[in-house]
Structures are given as structure tokens and as C-alpha cells.
Amino acid sequence: MQQSTLSPEDTGWDTMTRVLHWVLAITVTFQLFSSLIMADTPTQFLYPVHTVVGLIAGTFTLIFWIHAFANGDLGILLPWNRAGHTAIMRDLRGLLRGRLPMMGDKVGLSSFVHGLGLLALTGSSASGLILFTLTPLGSHAIPANAIEFTNMSLYHKFLGELFWAYFIGHITFAVLHQLKGANILGGIFGSANAAASNDPTDDTPEK
């Protein structure tokens, strides 16, 4: 890890990351909100749609992990080393003092929370896939192993609730960063100035 300050040119997301971000944002948002209403009789038609969109979201989640690995970003999303822990704790202390954590392609609290969100999404996708195999073609037919189906449904619901927390927090902090002048939307839509700050006092380690 090198100690470095990001310049404005370094803070944009690459095209592949932006595409994956938007595909996951759209599919996961549908999954979250459809899960709230599809148990009602008038909206049970959403169940097979939820299943198909879930398979798409799961596929792109896997692609995201592969892309992160290829770019060497796993150490940013899941910084399990002393330098990563130090950066996260520094961001946490700053957050308690009212300072938003730095965003962008760098080790710190923001990227670590992204990693945790991806883990929750991965678990939700995996449990959804298992539920799909227990109910062929995503039908409402009674599964052969009702106990296994019930247990996996509870696990799937729990991970979905974890992702709700990440989803709300992610949007909240993105809005706060945007209001404080960080060009979050520019980074998402691909402008030259992207989300991370080029604060000259920032010494968060990059990948």
C-alpha cells in the first residue's frame, strides 16, 4: 500500500464499474421493493419476475466480484490487514467528529462498507438461487423439502434486511457527499471529476 493523495483525474469510476453499478442498482432496487408487496394476493404475479430479476442481479454480482479481483480491488473492499484497519478506524473517528469518510477507489470506511454490502448481496443472491432450485421455475408449488425451504427463506429474508440497511445508508451518504461538494453524480455518470475527494490532508492508503 502506498500513501497517496488522489487527484481529480484519479477519482472517476471506469466504464465497467459504472455499468455494473447501474445494473445492480436497478435490479436490486426492484428486488427490495417488490419483496415488500409480492406476498399479497393481487401482487403474487411479481414472484416469478422477482425470481428472474434476482438471477440477473446474482449474475452481475458475480461479475462485479470478478471485475474487482481483476482490478486488484478486493483489498480495498475487504481490507483485512493492519493498514486497512487503521484507515477504517481513522474514518470512524472522523465520522464521530462530523467528517464524512473519503469516497472513491481507496482503502477506508466507505469502500469497506461497499464490500460488506456486496457480501450481503452475494449471500442474498446465493440463498435466492437455492430457493429457486427448491421451487422449480419459481412457481408457488409446495417444495419437496418444506423445512429446508422455510429455513432458507428466513436466511434470505435476513440478508435482504441487512441489504436494506446498506441500501439506505449508501444513498444517505451519497446525498450528504453531494451536498458537501463531492461530485458523486459526476463519478457515477462518468464526468472527469468523480466521487472521491482530493483533500490534501487525506493520507488514506490506496490499493
What labels would you give this structure?
mainly alpha; 207 residues; disordered C terminus; Fumarate Reductase Cytochrome B subunit
Order of helices and strands: HHHHHHH
Task: Please state the structural category.
Answer: mainly alpha
CATH class reads Mainly Alpha
Helicity level: 55-70%
How big is the Rg? 19 Å
Question: Which range does the strand content fall in?
Answer: under 5%
- Largest pleated sheet: none
Look up the CATH topology: Fumarate Reductase Cytochrome B subunit
Distance between the termini: 6 Å
User: Domains counted in the coordinates: how many?
Assistant: 1
Low-confidence stretches: 1-11, 192-206
What is the annotated CATH architecture? Up-down Bundle
The dominant shape is elongated
CATH superfamily grouping: Transmembrane di-heme cytochromes, Chain C
Q: Compute the average pLDDT.
A: 80
Number of strands: 0
Detailed description of the structure:
- This protein has 207 residues and is mostly helical.
- It has a single domain (13-189), classed as Fumarate Reductase Cytochrome B subunit.
- Helix content is 64%, strand content 0%.
- The protein contains seven helices and no strands.
- The protein has helices at 15-37, 46-70, 74-77, 82-96, 109-134, 146-179, 184-189.
- Helix 1 (15-37) packs antiparallel against helix 2 (46-70), helix 2 crosses helix 5 (109-134) and helix 5 (109-134) packs antiparallel against helix 6 (146-179).
- The longest helix has 34 residues, at 146-179.
- It is elongated and about 50 Å long.
